[in-house]
Amino acid sequence: MRIEALPPDIKLCRGYCDDLASLLESQDRANRPCPGCNLPCPTHHSPVCACACAPHCPHARAHMSSDGKRFPIEPGIAPLVYAFLRLRKVPPCWSCEGHETPLGLPTRPPRIIFYGRSALYPALIAEAMLTLLIQKKLSSPWEVIATPIGNALDATYTLQPEPAEIAAPALRVLQADVRVIADHLQTEVLSAARRYQAELRAALREAS
Question: What is the pTM of this model?
Answer without folding.
Answer: 0.91
